[in-house]
Amino acid sequence: MFQNIIYEYNLAHAIHDGFVKKPAIVGRSNFDKNIYDDTELEELKIKDGLTIHESLKSELAVYADNKKARLVKPFMLIVADNIAHAERLKTRIDADDFEGGKYKGKVIVVHSQKSGEEKDEVIERLLAVESTDEPTEIVIHVDMLKEGWDVNNLYTIVPLRAANSKILVEQSIGRGLRLPFGKLTGVEALDRLHIIAHDNI
Known about the structure:
Layout: H1 11-16, E1 22-26, H2 38-67, E2 75-79, H3 83-93, E3 107-110, H4 116-127, E4 138-141, E5 154-159, H5 166-175, E6 192-196
Parallel strand pairs: 1-6, 2-4, 2-5, 3-4, 5-6
């Protein structure tokens, strides 16, 4: 495409050489998405993502203990369709009757229409999301987290936007490729970025 490039080192090379997490599509075997309506499918994908998220929390705790390494707190990113959709998801996940209230107070929504103190609080939490002292475990975003926001503890992505937002999903995946320990761990689950997309397989 460009004629003045002296050297190109693309994502495929970085994955091959072990400099980033390996992105992987997570699916269900013998899955028929047609037996679910949109709401049921959405909830299934979120809960499948959270199952992986909880498993990774345990894996990271064991790794930190065994290797005497710092504890990494993983978080899950949900790509919402629009602002109203994102706010509905937050209300649902933040509720007492969702997974026993486990994620109450641990969800933030990021979109362009936030302002004032609410915006400042969300940005502060977003910037501190790598800290084990910061409670956020789920970030829901609408077209906001593109270039310029890099974290190393994103392990699970749940794309809920329509198929025509392929570029946004790809940008979201790019946010999750950094390695929290600066190198591959040799533990398959900890060296992988999980993308919940079994309805598209």
